[in-house]
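A.,

Following up on our hallway conversation. Structure tokens first:
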């Protein structure tokens, strides 16, 4: 054991609590039982089998109100692996459930036996026919697919609110639609072809001209049965008419029986049946979509009404005017959404009965946009709108920022309203559809029913399509509350079916919580056809039992998850999964959602239980050590949960008092620490040049093993040499800004082999060249943005340096008279925002008077307009750092890169590199995992320049891609340097 290995007990919850009824039992503490574990390991390899109890727990939860512990989780890499798992399940009489993003709201992604992760190795987009079609793998998020298609002026039809996280496989398997898809742009209508694996292992590519012949040879009974059922349905005019009528409005409850009417051959019928089959018919390994035009001219209005019924009554008029989207939000939804950054604060005091419609028109050109806007104005003119808050304008806008804000508020319905629920309550998200002409009546009836059963009313939805969403919060640990929910569901389902002849699931699919009510909606004849279809395609019942079809009338009450209260920063989490694609460690260890899920399971357990002990043993590395602490999860989370902050707090809890004292001491004497670090980098570089990197790697690996991997960095060959000891000469007189070179740029030099000015010389030269010189204070040595201590959870050291840098900056800037320009985005973020909680009251007042500016913003806004036209390079690829995302500086990076290169590429897969200061040297596997997709995309071609704006992130990208990244400011200095000018600014002599 390493000398300074932290004690797992430091993270043990100390909250007194009784054990939860749904806690993982002690017998599961050892994880996957034998022989299941060893047999699957032999079949697939150990790296594809997740068996620890912590693995099983983190996969047991999804965005739904249910929680089922799998016996094992497998992570297949290809179709051979999937077929092997299905064959194994057949032979052993086991069950299989496929899981991708885990954003489904009804438990479709949960299983009690073999759970198959089909997200990690199943991403990819191939553009076909210039974008008219696209081949997409099932682990690809909708947002990622649309990012690629946007270059071709196209997009996918389905557009669920969870597009940031939900994957194509899940969207097709659930026939999820979203804001604009309705019944004409959903997966059923826009899927051109599918490739899927049937339960027996047969692979079907519906685009193959010989697919029917091959299927008839492989599965003759299946083909005969499908054609027989088609004939049976078509011979019944009443049933045929009923099926057609059911799909005139949105409907994802049960199987797509209209596939028997729309398909002429077994393969065509299967193509239709697979859409919306919720993983019960097979595994969809590839989807070819017919894409849609991306109309870029957008006009959007957020219109406020005195009541929900008044808003609903206006919906048909906007539909008639050609609106692509008409979204409804009631007062509770509007008020809850103020927790979302960018939503006006005065919405918090909106009157209770207020409602709003978010109406959007899209057009391909200016003329079309003007016609749409005139049609919208005609409708608005006759409406009785209200303006209950100063921020309300009731006007249509073309401004992208405002439009994005409106949609952010709308898409946050589940998480914003759910996040404001009482602590410890479980959240149920329901959706249903009625004929759009009955929308107002349905709203009134729903609100009355919620009130009758004691639930807070909150409703939103795709009003243009008669599709409403609502939330229910209750305590799943309290039997009487579960019965209250059960009584509501009985009444609700009867209301929707009997009064409105509606769909009990419009776009979220049947899952577990509507399965008992399937026959209520469809009737016995159609429901029995669905059971027969399942028996025909999956006769052994291998796939997803009790999802879609379940004869137990109380099946929707089984497996409801309790929600123990956890740390306040994470307690509002509803486990939606929006955070996962942005997390650097989500393919390596755990995601933010899983970190919270694991913490909640600890709090379900009695103190000292075997399961709690096993979870704590894994949590240190899987959750705490491999968290980059970049907090991009906060940006993705609609209610701003910062799981990175929670992990930093856990790091702090693991520190001994002695470690905290040492960290504070390094902060107090950081000038000496900084000089020593620069000297160590120089010596290491010299030693590496003479003895090779292997010796340094061997020495640091031995030290890591002896001391602690999370304390001792590993030497990486990509680490550059030391920075010059002295900074460029500058003068305070006439300076337009104070330039603060970050300590990382005072320690580490330019990339190996780079010929040109240092970053500091470049910034100074650019300022002079633009007529806006900067001044570097003489006493910057020994100061820091405090991120070093903040990221590691050293609170005492963080407090020391946070106050020191603010006091120093106040003096340097003459009391805030000049801006402080910082040359590393993470350090800008640290000084501008992250130091604030650690400041004394006096220094907090000083901080309010400072203007902290990232060097990218300074260069793009203040320098670039005054710089000479550059001698551009042909192409550049940029890496936007996570700090740039927090600061909103990504477009500034792109702007500067465009001044340096004719062609600028921002990779679609660009995200946090996970290097996180020195974390990429403490856990290099984190950066390797975080950058894998971006590096693969970057290396599909060569670029003339590889640019970013943070030295450690550049090192991480060097390691990931094999190319040398450098600051965009260094490149800007090069391309704008006058012909014949020296390549460096005045550089003081070394020593």
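Then the amino acids I'd put at each of the 991 positions:
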């Amino acid at each position: 054991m390493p000398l300074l290995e932290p004690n797992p007990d430091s993270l043990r919850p100390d909250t007194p609590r009784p054990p939860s009824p749904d806690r993982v039992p002690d017998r599961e503490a050892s994880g996957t039982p034998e022989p299941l574990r060893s047999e699957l390991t032999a079949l697939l390899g150990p790296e594809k089998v997740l068996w620890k109890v912590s693995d099983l727990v983190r996969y047991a939860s999804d965005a739904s109100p249910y929680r089922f512990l799998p016996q094992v989780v497998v992570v297949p890499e290809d179709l051979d692996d999937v077929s092997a798992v299905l064959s194994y399940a057949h032979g052993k009489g086991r069950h299989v459930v496929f899981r991708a993003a885990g954003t489904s709201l009804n438990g479709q992604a949960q299983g009690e036996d073999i759970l198959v992760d089909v997200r990690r190795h199943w991403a990819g987009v191939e553009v076909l026919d210039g974008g008219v079609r696209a081949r997409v793998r099932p682990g690809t998020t909708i947002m990622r697919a649309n990012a690629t298609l946007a270059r071709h002026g196209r997009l996918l039809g389905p557009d669920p609110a969870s597009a940031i996280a939900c994957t194509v496989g899940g969207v097709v398997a659930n026939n999820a639609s979203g804001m604009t898809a309705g019944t004409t742009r959903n997966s059923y209508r826009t899927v051109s072809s599918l490739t899927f694996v049937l339960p027996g292992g047969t692979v079907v590519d519906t685009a193959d001209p010989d697919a029917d012949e091959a299927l008839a040879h492989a599965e003759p009974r299946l083909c005969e049965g499908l054609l027989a059922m088609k004939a049976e349905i078509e011979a019944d005019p009443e049933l045929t008419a009923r099926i057609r009528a059911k799909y005139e409005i949105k409907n994802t409850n049960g199987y797509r029986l209209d596939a028997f009417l729309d398909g002429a051959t077994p393969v065509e019928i299967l193509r239709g049946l697979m859409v919306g089959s919720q993983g019960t018919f097979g595994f969809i390994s590839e989807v070819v979509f017919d894409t849609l035009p991306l109309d870029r001219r957008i006009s959007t209005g957020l219109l406020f009404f005195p009541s929900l019924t008044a808003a609903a009554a206006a919906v048909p008029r906007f539909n008639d005017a050609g609106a692509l989207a008409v979204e409804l939000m009631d007062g509770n939804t509007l008020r809850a959404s103020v927790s979302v950054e960018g939503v006006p604060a005065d919405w918090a005091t909106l009157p209770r009965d207020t409602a709003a419609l978010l109406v959007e028109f899209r057009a391909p050109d200016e003329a079309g946009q003007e016609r749409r806007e005139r049609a919208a104005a005609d409708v608005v003119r006759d409406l009785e709108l209200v303006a209950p808050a100063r921020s309300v304008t009731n006007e249509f806008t073309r401004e992208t920022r405002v439009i994005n804000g409106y949609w952010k508020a709308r898409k946050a319905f589940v998480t914003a309203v759910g996040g404001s629920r009482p602590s410890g309550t479980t959240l149920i998200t329901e959706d249903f559809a009625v004929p759009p002409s009955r929308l107002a009546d349905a709203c009134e009836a729903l609100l009355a029913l919620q009130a009758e059963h004691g639930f807070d009313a909150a409703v939103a939805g795709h009003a243009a399509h008669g599709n409403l969403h609502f939330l229910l919060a209750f305590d799943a640990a309290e039997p009487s509350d579960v019965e209250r929910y059960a009584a509501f569901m009985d009444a609700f389902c009867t209301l929707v079916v009997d009064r409105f002849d509606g769909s009990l699931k419009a776009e979220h699919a049947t899952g577990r919580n509507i399965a008992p009510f399937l026959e209520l909606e469809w009737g016995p004849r159609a429901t029995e056809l669905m059971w027969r279809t399942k028996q025909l395609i999956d006769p052994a019942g291998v796939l997803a039992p009790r999802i879609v079809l379940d004869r137990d009338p109380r099946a929707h009450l089984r497996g409801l998850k309790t929600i123990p209260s956890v740390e306040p920063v994470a307690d509002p989490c509803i486990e939606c999964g929006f955070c996962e694609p942005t997390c650097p460690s989500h393919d390596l260890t755990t995601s933010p959602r899983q970190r919270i899920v694991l913490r909640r399971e600890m709090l379900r357990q009695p103190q000292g239980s075997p399961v709690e002990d096993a979870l704590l043993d894994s949590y240190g590395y899987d959750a705490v050590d491999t968290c980059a602490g970049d907090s991009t999860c906060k940006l993705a989370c609609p209610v701003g949960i910062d799981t990175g902050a929670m992990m930093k707090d856990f790091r702090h809890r693991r520190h001994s008092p002695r470690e905290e004292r040492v960290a504070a001491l390094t902060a107090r004497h950081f000038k000496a620490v900084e000089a020593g670090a620069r000297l160590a980098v120089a010596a290491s570089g010299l030693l590496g040049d003479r003895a090779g990197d292997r010796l340094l790697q061997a020495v640091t690996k031995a030290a890591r093993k002896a001391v602690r991997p999370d304390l001792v960095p590993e030497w990486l060959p990509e680490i550059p040499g030391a920075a010059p000891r002295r900074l460029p000469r500058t003068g305070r007189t006439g300076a337009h800004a104070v330039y603060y070179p970050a300590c990382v740029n005072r320690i580490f030099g330019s990339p190996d082999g780079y010929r040109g000015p240092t970053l500091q010389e470049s910034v100074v030269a650019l300022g002079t060249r633009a007529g806006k010189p900067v001044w570097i204070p003489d006493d910057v040595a020994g100061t820091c943005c405090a991120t070093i201590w903040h990221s590691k959870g050293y609170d005492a050291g963080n407090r020391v340096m946070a106050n020191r840098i603010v006091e120093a900056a106040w003096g340097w800037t003459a009391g805030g008279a000049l801006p402080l320009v910082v040359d590393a985005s993470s350090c800008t973020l640290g000084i501008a925002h992250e130091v604030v909680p650690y400041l004394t009251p006096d220094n907090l007042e000083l901080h309010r008077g400072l203007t902290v500016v990232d060097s990218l913003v300074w260069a793009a806004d203040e320098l670039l307009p005054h710089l000479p036209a550059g001698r551009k390079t042909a192409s550049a690829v940029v890496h936007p750092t996570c700090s740039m995302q927090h600061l909103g500086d990504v477009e500034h990076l792109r702007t500067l890169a465009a001044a340096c290169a004719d062609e600028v590429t921002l990779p679609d897969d660009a995200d946090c590199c996970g290097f996180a200061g020195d974390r990429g040297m403490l856990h290099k596997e984190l950066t390797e995992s975080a950058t894998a997709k971006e590096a693969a995309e970057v290396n599909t071609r060569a670029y003339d320049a590889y640019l970013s704006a943070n030295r450690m992130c550049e090192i991480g990208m060097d390691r990931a891609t094999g190319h040398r990244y450098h600051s965009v400011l260094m490149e800007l200095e090069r391309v704008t340097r006058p012909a014949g000018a020296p390549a460096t600014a005045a550089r003081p002599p070394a020593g």
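Residues 985-991 have pLDDT under 50 and may be disordered. Curious whether your intuition agrees with the design.

B.
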